Amino acid sequence: MPELPDVEGFLAVFRSCGQGRRVERIQVRDAGVLRGVSGARLRARLRGRRFGEPWRHGKRLVTPTDGPALVWHFGMTGELLCASADDPPAAHDRLLLSLDDGRQLRYRDQRKLQGVQLAADDAAVERILAGLGPDALDVGRVEFAGLLAGRRGAIKATLMDQSVTAGLGNLLCDEILWRARLAPTRVARDLSEEECRTLHASLRRVLKSAVPTGRVPPRRTWLIGRRDDPEPECPRCDAPLRSRRVSGRRTVWCDRCQS
Predict the structure, then answer these.
(1) Which of 5, 8, 56, 59 does the annotation list as catalytic?
(2) Residue 3 annotated as catalytic
(3) Which of 50-59 are b and which e, b meaning 16 or more Cβ less than 10 Å from the residue's Cβ?
(4) Are β-strands 241-246 and 69-73 bridged in parallel, bridged antiparallel, or unpaired?
(5) Any residues with CB less than 8 A from the CB of 37 and at least 6 apart, and which?
(6) pLDDT (tens digit, 0 to 9) for every residue of the chain, 259 residues total?
(7) Which among 43, 197, 249, 256 is annotated as catalytic?
(8) For a Cys staple, 6 with which of 2, 53, 121, 136, CB 3.0–4.6 Å?
């Protein structure tokens, strides 16, 4: 499932393939990935436009042109690729943007749970992003503690709430909580000042390490790298890892390490 580091990777793909390029052709192979716009309107508004500097907020990628902007959300299985226009599309390539240098940007998504929106201007982009909290890569320690204060839900669910901090998903949250030695079921507002400080530091360390890879890395020294083992053990203390659903998501933690 794409999380903040993955979308940073898609941002890099767009910068190398799409930035500064003019859109010559739009192929909507499956309109099920379009949100709030028809294929005909997308083609009419986007054809001939030149892409500018892309940027990311949370799990959203914003790619402005000299007219409207595209806002990409990758859901559970989405990804953005750069390909030659001569390469046959894959089965789940839903939207193809042919550029003026002979390459294509391809939105590939098997499950189609999210998709691509067309924003007429900066104000429309702001409306699309309005419900999101601060980007997890930018949130400061004091602001982070303030966001957790008063939250009566479990800390795992609070971290995953995109209106609190934008960009964290299931895997990152489990990793960050394991680094901070906090049980995912702890109530967010009950964390001490020191625990909030430790949690924020863990968040920063995990993102600093993951973002350059453009993915959530399944390293064996990380909890993420052990969670799908047949009999997973904690990378830190070798105790058996526990697994249950917290707020509807499979959650993995170490009972010995995480108080």
Answers:
(1) 59
(2) yes
(3) bbeebebbbb
(4) unpaired
(5) 45, 117, 118
(6) 899 999 999 999 999 999 999 999 999 999 999 999 999 999 999 999 999 999 999 999 999 999 999 999 999 999 999 999 999 999 999 999 999 999 999 999 999 999 999 999 999 999 999 999 999 999 999 999 999 998 999 999 999 999 999 999 999 999 999 999 999 999 999 999 999 999 999 999 999 999 999 999 999 999 999 999 999 999 999 999 999 998 788 999 999 999 8
(7) 249
(8) 2
2 included as an active-site residue: yes
Give the active site residue among 3, 8, 79, 175: 3
- Annotated catalytic residue within 2, 5, 54, 64: 2
Residues, the chain, total?
259
Which residue's entry shows tokens 């968040």? 203
